[in-house]
């Protein structure tokens, strides 16, 4: 296959051979895949292409599942809050949940495995003081305290796989049988998962790549009584819980988990919650189990002479590509959905696999491909944001999913993807394995560290949410910027200090979230280590409510370093004198307007040394402050945009005391970027918009030349390393 073909995976389906051949040629595809809801017919399987076949380990086998309903997957759920008005309180604990997805577990004794909590006091209600009405799905509390609130934490069986349910609703599949997920921690299910895979491999000899979608436990996705999403957490471990898991955990870790360790007051331990030690222990327990069991399946695949690929989605919980046990699974590849630059890097940076693949948007489903809509718009936005990250570290392959017959009905879309696939191959062939130029090394500091590499501030993967876009923009900007990025935790700092090669630390998030850090900021070792590091020349950028935790007269625990704090009503009696912005500043030299997203109210400057860069509505939104030999920057928020990417880059260089190096390998037009590869003496000058752009391009010595780029153009140029 020549340079202009390959590295692209195409979805296909039955009775679509001619069109599949045409698009394989036009898009240069060298692999064919099925999708949930489609099958490949035998004619398509005979094409000169690698065949990916989707394989569901713990769903899609209803004959087995129906005969072993006691091994169905489980979740702990929490009821709505109910206020007692008398000593007896009856709670409909299933209210608000979708009974086609979930059924209460009465096989295991509720008195042993459920928990009723007085949420007014936090006390657990004695099991003698409540009963269960199984026919009505009710809990009756017999000694409630009037005007106290109560919740029920209860076990359910998950009788419908949530991804199939989502696809069922989205595509109006009607009478399609509901997939029942089974738990491979259970004996019959564990044996079945291995024997059936061997049988499946024998029955599908034309398969080259087994695309595990994924392994055992779905991320937490629970639907409400209307069949709409009620709770979704792409990182959630809820569906890995079972009586068997709780008992195995106690045996392995030496203590018993409570239901509350899982339901977590109804927050279910989302990645925004600062993890408790019990939940960290549970995650470790699940990851170890998943890695051990997944390795058995991967070994079976390898023994059959085929490759094993994991989809970073659906049932991915426990695999944790940046976790301790992932390498042990022995996978050949990981494929994941690309929502933009941050998710592209999340996939591309995964270690311990031979290749990575990005599934680009849009998915070929009728919610996008319908008469009157133009899917090119979404495809273009997806490609341009992801391309920045590809130019830093490319995935090895790209592809699409869904119904190819739908996409084929949109000729303009087909033509656009032809351009995208050609451009991807050009980038890959030029830079794969080549280290790009980085002017700085930046560390993202939060409670999770490397485990959540490129995964912070996400709810349902890369979907937009109101209170996260102001922070997710930081990752999106950095994903394609000329900086090296690493992720560190508070425990890393306590145990190992701050690595010598870090130029700037970023702490971004709302107060009391895992990403800001909460009570970690009253740990003396954390605070003094970071302060000393900044004082001796380090750079620090705080975004939103960085270092926030009310303690000893400060809300921002690095207030004296940042030069700002947040007024919480406690110091209204103290006048706030420092309100005058500086006339100009290095950080804002390219800015004409500011966008801090949700922003942050009531942040004020502490001293005359605070350089106020943006002040409006009586609040500081952007500032800088010296601290010894170092500098600290405050930002109220940073949604992703070209303007904010430039603002962040200027802030990083200023915080690092490297302003003089800012125009080294630089473009003057913020809607363009330059990616430099010193070892091969090449650079890519990129237009990140769909409009023509003109920019000055600066080389390593600061020499400049003017360049005009066509809409979304990449221009490759060679240069000499000699001054």
From TrEMBL:
Residues 665-716 form the Lacto-N-biose phosphorylase C-terminal domain. Pfam families: Lact_bio_phlase, LBP_C, LBP_M. InterPro entries: Class_I_gatase-like (IPR029062), Glyco_hydro_b (IPR013780), Ig-like_fold (IPR013783), Lact_bio_phlase-like_N (IPR035080), Lacto-N-biose_phosphorylase (IPR012711), LBP_C (IPR035356), LBP_M (IPR035363). Keywords: Glycosyltransferase, Transferase. GO terms for molecular function: 1,3-beta-galactosyl-N-acetylhexosamine phosphorylase activity; 1,4-alpha-oligoglucan phosphorylase activity. Residues 6-437 form the Lacto-N-biose phosphorylase-like N-terminal TIM barrel domain. Its EC number is 2.4.1.211. It comes from the Bacteria. Residues 441-660 form the Lacto-N-biose phosphorylase central domain. It is an enzyme of class 2 (transferase). This is 1,3-beta-galactosyl-N-acetylhexosamine phosphorylase. It comes from Cytobacillus praedii.
